[in-house]
Amino acid sequence: MNNKIRHEGIIDSIEEGCVHVRILQTSACAACKVAGYCNAAEAKEKIVDVFCDAVAKQYTKGQQVVVSTSGNVAARALLWAFGFPFLLMIAVLVLVLWQTHDEGVAALSGLLSLVPYYGLLFLLRHRMRKEMAFIIE
């Protein structure tokens, strides 16, 4: 089984060591033959940053490329973006509710616990970029 996530895209721009690739992210419905007649069909354009210091100069704007990453990278990204914050929020919610017996304070504390978490992720973004990255095939 191939454990890669692949998207075809077009190079939008090139900066020093970074290639910005525009991909069309489609839902399963968007590829359907009757998608034009259905309101459920959805497609979004996304810009993917591919960091490739040495080979960025070999690409040109408008060139068609295929970007890919492993399924493990996608799973890790989902875990860091949604899994850990959910567990943190629930843990803080339960702990504060147990201590104060005030649901409003517990809910607010659970939500506010996400601010330092996402702040820390923002500060570690350069380190995480190296571990969770797309490549151009």
Properties at a glance:
elongated, alpha+beta, 137 residues, 5 strands, 5-stranded antiparallel sheet
Write a structural description.
The chain is of the alpha+beta class and about 140 residues long. Helices cover about 40% and strands about 30% of the residues. A hairpin with a 2-residue loop joins strand 1 (about 5-15) and strand 2. The longest helix has 30 residues, at about 70-100. The radius of gyration is 20 Å and the shape is elongated.
Which helices and strands occur, and which strands form pairs?
Elements: E1 4-15, E2 18-26, E3 43-51, E4 64-70, H1 71-100, H2 103-112, H3 114-123, H4 125-131, E5 135-136
Antiparallel strand pairs: 1-2, 1-4, 2-3, 4-5
Count of distinct strands: 5
Report the end-to-end length measured between terminal Cα atoms. 18 Å
The stretches of 5 or more residues where confidence is low (pLDDT under 50) are: none
Q: How big is the Rg?
A: 20 Å
Roughly what percent helix? 40-55%
Query: What would the principal axes of the Cα set say about the shape?
Result: elongated
What's the main sheet like? 5 strands, antiparallel
Strand order in the largest sheet: 3-2-1-4-5
Describe, in short, the structure shown.
The chain is an alpha+beta fold. Helix content is 42%, strand content 28%. Helix 1 packs antiparallel against helix 3 (114-123).
